[in-house]
Amino acid sequence: MSKNYQVDVDKHRELDLEGKRQSIANHFARIIEDLGLDLNDPSIKDTPQRVAKMLVNETCNGLFSKPPEITTFPLDDSSSRDLVIIEGIPFSSLCEHHFQPFVGTVTIAYLPGDQVMGLSKGARVLDYFASRPQIQERLTNQVANYLFEQLHAKGVFVLINAEHYCMKVRGVKKHNSSTITTAIIGEIDKNQILTTIQMK
Ligand SMILES: [Zn+2]
Fold first, then answer.
1. Stated pTM of the model
2. Which residue from 71, 78, 87, 90 could staple onto 118, CB 3.0 to 4.6 Å apart?
3. Where are the domains of the chain?
């Protein structure tokens, strides 16, 4: 795996996830106390465990798991070898600067070599890299690099359009702004992709 997307999965995997959930719950209980809230309140008493479970099992789970295997299918001579575009894949991730969600949609396009991937695989790769504290720019590159390597594609293009809750609920409080990031690897025509998407 290239350094670009590799996390120290092995180091994390040695840690027992139940121990990690318990440790995070203990820390989060202190945060609740520091906020002056009552941990005996029936509505709040299980919040530390809920937050720990959410982080370890869901929103940061990509830190503790391996990247998905990509099933590919050989292209025969009768199949198109032109662009494959998968559009509007929804995702959510966690901004590493504020631990607030950012949510949006992703377009993945690739120019096949001799293989195509199962259609759900782009979404799985996206979910894997999104399930950890991220910045949108890095997420875009990680998805593109991983697909490029795994598919032996001639080129890959990834576009992410997302709204960041750290911009909506704090700071500048700009509710309707969105951020678009793109990554291009190999020989792929960005203009052809954008024109194809707009022609629909
Ligand atoms: Zn942020």
1. 0.89
2. 71
3. 9-64, 72-199
